[in-house]
Every structure is written in structure tokens, then in C-alpha cells.
Amino acid sequence: MAAKIALVGRPNVGKSTLFNRLVGKRLALVDDTPGVTRDRREGEAKLGDLSFTVVDTPGLEEAPEAALEGRMRQQTDRAVEDAAACLFMIDARAGVTPLDKAFASILRSSGKPVILLANKAEGSAANAGLYDAYALGVGEPIAISAEHGEGMGDLYAALESFLATEEAVDESNDEIAWDDPLKPLRVAIVGRPNAGKSTLVNKLIGEDRLLTGPEAGITRDSISVEWRWQGKNREWPVKLFDTAGMRKKARVQSKLEKLSVSDALRAIKFAEVVVMLLDAETPFEKQDLQIADLALREGRALVIGVNKWDLIEERNTKMRSLQEMAGRLLPQAPGVPIVAFSAKTGAGLNRIMPAVTQVYVDWNARVKTSELNDWLQEATSRHAPPAVSGQRIKLRYIAQTKTRPPTFVAQCTRAEEVPDSYKRYLVNGIRDAFDIKAVPIRLILKKPD
Ligand code: GDP
Ligand code: GDP
């Protein structure tokens, strides 16, 4: 059974809004028997590759003022009782209220891990409330906007440690130098069976070298195809890895559903850029998310390709909903490009390679050390590193040590004690300041030599 996460806070801070965002349409249990106050509701929540049961505690609004404290404690106790962790929400615009303090004290005495969410913080509109929130004594606040979906990446990172996830995958080396014009850009097309991978590769290279379709026993003699793409400023040699081909080559017929993930992993290891192919009619299923998450953990640049667009009628609505889903379900990759097309008719295929080369360039981004250090100074003075056991953490120097994906090392006192939330603040800062979109960014904090 999925771990439970309790959503706690006074009325009107935005709990239901976050609940709905996390649960979407997957609401498992709603008790709307007339005359019965809904004390709590539960739903199956998804955030990136994390699945958990979120327990909301609405209904307090209806309680008479005098009874509020008692009822509040009772309900909170029940919701928190078997939760793995609590999301404690305040309204960052309203600041900290006496009722917030009462909740904080209940939560502190529960002994459960607490993640403090400062909601309604869209567009960093609520910095003052954010600082107040430290006074609640339940750790560092994470600024989010439940309504606009901001801060979901930070929430993901905070929740991740309380929830079991798949084992991390080994790091693999990237041995090919980026500006060697003869080395092809290695692109993997991954996705669930029948997403249209073979059809896409065929169409892209303009010949029917790979066979598609439901016929049994079709094999290919190669798992990759080389090809050249004419970009705006240069021609790109490209090597496409097609997981459908890998599967067919291995002649493995059984357990296709399961296999496609391990095939995808193989292709991801070969690749620099991963195009995750979704079926427009059934996008973002569990396996899609697993594959996308694998690609990002492997440090690859990601593009989401939405295939079978010819079957979609309300395209604008569909695209908006895909963007919303990507923001919510893939918070690890903010701004990942989503391109829609029909591999079958060829419509929209010209959108793929510009997106692929764009993320490839970001993946190879190199930031000047002087600019990085200017940024670090500004970032640490805007929001100073926290103090740990009475001593302030000092960040002294930062440099980029690697590209593909961009990797930064900062010298830092008490490096191992820097809270994750502060690391996230730095990573997001690098992303924004140097416009590195849609690719993983790694930040390593090291004790000064
Ligand atoms: P609950 O009582 O804690 O469940 O709060 P609701 O989810 O019902 O939200 C209370 C009000 O705050 C509603 O009017 C929401 O639209 C609003 N709200 C929720 N999240 C946000 C947010 O991120 N930003 C802003 N500005 N308003 C929000
Ligand atoms: P793979 O398993 O991911 O390699 O998928 P295939 O390329 O074999 O395609 C699976 C099925 O989807 C085939 O019947 C294709 O004809 C069909 N298909 C692929 N692309 C499209 C598309 O853009 N539109 C439509 N309508 N069908 C498509």
C-alpha cells in the first residue's frame, strides 16, 4: 500500500487546492453523504515518479469557533497517526497566524516528519511570510503555489526522502566530446510499446528501413540508424536509437510491458538526448513517467514527443493539458519541451529536431567561473545560507566542473549539513540565471580544501 502523507493546516490556506493538484482525477474516496461532515478525504497522489496516498482534513470550516481547537486536534491526530510525513501548509501572504502556531505545536508533539509549505507564493510574492514561517519551529518553509503549480519540484525533492523510490541507477560516463563535428548527436527514441517509435524513425529518415506494424517475427539488423539533419546554422549528424528495434532484435516476445523499460534504459545509456514518445490518446501513463525519470536520473536531456496528434481534435486544449501534466508529473524537469506531431502523416515532424538540438545545447552549457561567482554572491546575499548549530554556513567559491549535464562544485563550510531546501534554492537559481532549461543540473557541495 502506498505511504500516507497527511495534509494539515488551518482553513483557507489552500489544502484542497493542493490535494486536487496532486490527486487529479484519481480521487479514491469521497464521502458526500448529506448531513455528514466530511472529516477527511484520501486520494491517490502522484508527483513525478512518487506515488502516495494524500490525506486531507477539510471540514473544519463548519466547526463552531469554540469547538475548533478540540476538533482540530482530534482530526489532525487521526490524519497524522499513520502518516509517513505531514505536509503542513500556511498562507505565505497572510503570514503566520495564532491558529498556524497551534497546528505547529500539535505537529511538533506528534513526532512525525513535517514539511512546511508556504502556499500562495506565486511569483515570489510572499517573501515576508516565508521568513516568518521559520518561527514555527518545524524547519525551513518550501514556497509553493498550489494554484499555479509552482514549487512542485521542491515539494518533490522534500517528499522523496520519505517515500520509497526505485533504486538509483549507476552513473555512466559520457566519453564523446561535444564540439567534435564528426561525432553524431546520439538520440534515443523511447516509449511504451505502440507509441509509434518505429513509425517515427522511419518517417524521420525518410525510408522504410525499419519495419513497423503488428506482424510477428519482424527483425531489424541494427539498433541504430545514422542520419543527417540540416539545422538553421549547421548540419547535424544524428544517430537514432530505437528501442522498438532493440526489442525486436532481442526476439523477446513475453512480458513486453516490463521489458520496454529495460530496453529504454539501454537506449538511454547510449543516448545524449532522449525523446520520450507519448501516445496523444493515453499520455503520461505510469511507464511513461518511469522512463522519463530514468532518463533524467541518468543525467540525459529530455524532449517529450506527443505522437498520433492526427487523432486529436481539440488540439489547443490538449496541449494545455499536456503542459499542465508535465509540470505536475515531471517536476524534476521544469520547462521540458513538448512537441506534438503525427509520425504516420509526417505533420509536425519538423518540430522535433529543433527541440532536440536546443536541449542538447543546454546540456552542454558552460558557465564562466567569474559569472558564476558573481551570481553566487548575489544569491547568498539575497537569501543567506542557514546557520547550523549556531554557526553560519559559508559558501565561498563555485565552478562548473563538467557539462553533459551541467555539474557545479561549490566550496562550502559544513557542506554535509546544508539543508536540501537551500541546495534547491541554489540549483533553481543557476537554472534561472544562466537559462539552462529542461536538463538535469547537478550541484556538489565540498568542504574547502
Ligand atoms: P483549504 O481550506 O485549506 O482547503 O483551502 P482551499 O484549497 O479551499 O483554498 C482557499 C482559497 O485559497 C481558495 O480561494 C483558493 O483559490 C486560494 N488558493 C489556493 N492556493 C492558492 C495559491 O497558490 N495562490 C493563491 N493566490 N491562492 C490560492
Ligand atoms: P512502436 O511499438 O512504438 O515501435 O510503435 P509502431 O511504430 O509499431 O506503431 C504502433 C501502431 O501505431 C502502428 O499501428 C502505427 O501505424 C500506429 N501509429 C504510429 N504513429 C501514428 C500516428 O502518428 N498516428 C496514428 N493514427 N497512428 C500511428
Automatic annotation (TrEMBL):
GTP 2 binds at residues 191-198, 242-246, 307-310. One of its GO terms (molecular function) is hydrolase activity. It comes from the Bacteria. The keyword Hydrolase applies. GO terms for biological process: ribosome biogenesis. Residues 3-167, 185-364 form the EngA-type G domain. Keywords: GTP-binding, Hydrolase, Nucleotide-binding, Repeat, Ribosome biogenesis. Gene3D superfamilies: 3.30.300.20, P-loop containing nucleotide triphosphate hydrolases (3.40.50.300). InterPro entries: G_ENGA, GTP-bd, GTPase_Der, KH_dom-like, KH_dom-like_a/b, P-loop_NTPase, Small_GTP-bd. CDD domains: EngA1, EngA2. GTP 1 binds at residues 9-16, 56-60, 119-122. Associates with the 50S ribosomal subunit. GTPase that plays an essential role in the late steps of ribosome biogenesis. Belongs to the TRAFAC class TrmE-Era-EngA-EngB-Septin-like GTPase superfamily. EngA (Der) GTPase family. NCBIfam families: GTPase_EngA, small_GTP. This is GTPase Der. It comes from Hyphococcus flavus. The lineage of its organism: Bacteria, Pseudomonadati, Pseudomonadota, Alphaproteobacteria, Parvularculales. The gene is der.
